[in-house]
Amino acid sequence: MMTEDTELEAPEAHTPGGSGATVIVVGNEKGGTGKSTTAMHIIVGLLREGYNVGAIDLDARQGTLARYFDNRRIYAAKMGVSLPHPVYRAIGLSDLRDRYLAKKNDRLRLADALRELGGTCDVIVMDTPGSDNALSRVAHSYADILITPINDSFVDLDLLGRVDHDTNEVRALSHYSEMVWEQKKVRAQRDGGSIDWIVMRNRLASLDTINKRNMDMALDGLSRRLGFRLAHGFSERVIFRELFLKGLTLLDIREEGADVTMTMSHMAALQEVRNLLQTIGVPEAVAAPNVANGQEEATAS
Questions:
Q1: Could you tell me if 47 and 53 are in contact, meaning their C-beta atoms sit under 8 angstroms apart?
Q2: How many domains is the chain partitioned into structurally?
Q3: Spatial contact of 85 and 69, defined as CB atoms under 8 Å apart
Q4: Could you report the per-residue pLDDT of 87-116, keeping only the tens digit for each?
Q5: CA distance 213 to 208
Q6: Is residue 243 included in any domain, yes or no?
Q7: pTM of the predicted model, to two decimals?
Q8: Are strands 53-57 and 145-151 parallel, antiparallel or unpaired?
Q9: Alpha-carbon separation of residue 138 from 108, 122, 143, 157 (angstroms)
């Protein structure tokens, strides 16, 4: 018998279908790992490469990505500079009281947004909340590329699975890893597609340490078990927090009129961003002042 959940997961139901847009989902079930910062830099990197980009914020209540875009628009107007913007949508959880109808409504609104943006965008980037909910799970099933940022510590490693700290043997998978596996199956049943899963290691130690070597071995075991690729992410740098207030990314700071002075730390961080874009298959993204694609930002709830 088809249950409530399996009915909602039926592959033929509510499929955006045939847009051709590549969907990148930035997701995990833990806050404070840099999801929105990662999403914003990917979005701007793609825009500066000339792609038409759509952005969907599935954490509308927190609204970090929305504030990033607001700050960006305000800064551009204040400084008189032209900054590329994606076409933006925000989708929050349904407030319907009936659980079944709420989940169905969430799925329909996400499918509608993907279908709409897919008609004009080359790439759609989705930022998910740092918690588990039905809307986030559905979003994972639409990913062509799934990027999971984690802080480089054994505390965050539990997001993927439990590892014996003495032998580095994988003892058990986490709820998040099991969820990703389930959404891979949903995706395959829906359209025969697959999800390229990338785990992005943030706050990497600059020096070789015992903890870093143990993390290397533990992640290697988990990657073989779960089938994800590893990417070096962003080091702990104040610049990322400062740029958020202006709505800028490291790919914008050479923009004519931008009141940010490049330092060696900025250059190192910029290289980290370029490396990430190359890892996920985006050509080298060099900040070019005149490569704005003219997209207008639009919001919807």
A1: yes
A2: 1
A3: yes
A4: 999 998 888 888 889 889 999 999 999 999
A5: 7
A6: yes
A7: 0.84
A8: unpaired
A9: 10, 21, 9, 23
